[in-house]
Write a structure and sequence with these properties.
alpha/beta, Rossmann fold, Dehydroquinate synthase-like, alpha domain, 2 domains, 3-stranded mixed sheet, 9 strands, 50% helix, binds zinc ion
Length: 395
């Protein structure tokens, strides 16, 4: 008897494939939307013509629209609240998030405030939303966050330099149109950073205490896919196969974390983003090897599986050595795609470690599912290693 338990939640209707973005008008119609607020970033979707393409499809379907294009990376409470005001004033009955995780997260909270009123901070934490938001359609233009299918939105409080999370089943998008062609405009750096975010979702999800058979299948496939495609996607940006595979891995990552959460790497990425503005994927990538090393002893078999998914040769190796190969494989991939080696290299002062560790330690919902229990002292030790970027094996 394995005592298998399953609790799987995916309310989003997902369309995946080249040109699925063209379904946008039709999908808004099916959801009975009459006027859509398009929530997007400041430049790229407009610059590369995607926004035009989308609004044309909306117009062809007889759907009215307004555009709110002020979302910045790490969207702030002010931005989101301004977007919600626009949705209300323009009388929108749907929200369309177009862009990376930041735009889609902002769209989720705009949709929430438009029906619930109040401020972003009122919804901080788990299941604090009382009334259904406006229906949300998500069109990702990066392959990383998986926000197109998750119940998470991360918002930044500029004054406190704090990032907080809104977690609610209400904010899962109703429809996700995942079109790998929309990711072709990503820079090399953004491809690397978002790709490592997707990988971190798969790895933290696979070793999570809440891991379950359905997410395990997705996680192993996502890791293998990232291992085989991220380098190509970074180095040959127009390679459609690599783009397609990375979009799929990111989608899987979103489905995984929606069900099993993440872990210590994500708990650390949050203050690294809030205090130092480090992009989410870079923060994850820099801390991931040390977090894996810390967690390794609690589930050697799962870490050995990760080594295998990366195509490492583990034949004949003792379990611990085979598991350690996973850390080396992730580190190797990071180096190849140009991810910085340490927090020091990212300009994080050594003196910030206690504060960082303290913030990460406070994230209880991730602490509870991380495979190895940790104290504040443990997190400080992990942070120190991340700062130095050394790769000395834990004994
Ligand atoms: Zn993430």
């Amino acid at each position: 008897m394995n005592n298998i338990t399953l609790e799987f939640y995916l309310p989003t209707k997902v369309f995946f494939g080249f040109n699925v973005v063209e379904k946008v008008g039709e999908e808004v119609q099916k959801s009975l939307g009459k006027k859509v607020l398009v929530v997007t970033g400041k430049a790229s979707t407009r610059k590369y013509g995607l926004l035009d393409k989308i609004t044309k499809k909306l117009a062809m379907a007889g759907v009215e629209f307004a555009i709110y294009d002020k979302v910045e990376p790490n969207p702030t409470t002010e931005t989101v609240e301004e977007g919600a005001k626009m949705a209300q004033e323009a009388g929108c009955d749907m929200v369309l998030g177009v862009g990376g995780g930041s735009s889609i997260d902002a769209a989720k909270v705009v949709a929430t405030l438009a029906t619930n009123g109040g401020q972003c901070i009122d919804f901080k934490g788990e299941e604090k939303i009382k009334s259904p938001p406006l229906p949300i359609i998500a069109i990702p233009t990066t392959s990383g966050s998986g926000s197109e299918v998750t119940r998470y939105a991360v918002i930044t409080q500029r004054k406190k330099l704090d990032k907080f999370e809104i977690v609610s089943h209400f904010i899962c998008p109703k429809v996700a149109l995942v079109d790998p062609k929309c990711t072709l405009t990503m820079s090399k750096e953004l491809t690397a950073s978002t790709g490592m975010d997707a990988l971190t979702h798969a790895i933290e999800g696979y070793v999570s205490r809440k891991a379950q058979p359905l997410t395990d299948i997705l996680a192993l496939h996502a890791m293998q896919t990232v291992a085989q495609n991220l380098e190509v996607a970074v180095k040959r940006r127009d390679n459609l196969t690599a783009r397609e595979n990375m979009s799929l891995a990111a989608l899987y990552g979103g489905i995984i974390i929606n069900n099993v959460r993440t872990g210590l790497a994500h708990a650390l990425a949050r203050p690294l983003g809030g205090y130092f503005g480090i992009p989410h994927g870079i923060a994850n990538a820099v801390v991931l090897p040390q977090v894996m090393r810390f967690n390794l002893s609690r589930n050697l078999k799962r870490f050995r599986d990760i080594s295998e998914a990366f195509g490492e040769n583990i034949e004949g190796l003792p379990m611990k050595k085979a598991a350690q190969k996973s850390v080396e494989a992730v580190t190797k991939l990071s180096r190849i795609i140009g991810i910085p080696n340490s927090l020091k290299e990212l300009g994080v002062p050594y003196e910030a470690i206690p504060k960082l560790a303290n913030e990460a330690f406070k994230v209880e919902r991730l602490r509870l599912v991380n495979p190895r229990s940790f104290t504040l002292t443990d997190v400080v030790a992990v942070c120190r290693r991340c700062w130095k970027g050394d790769l000395i094996h834990e004994s």
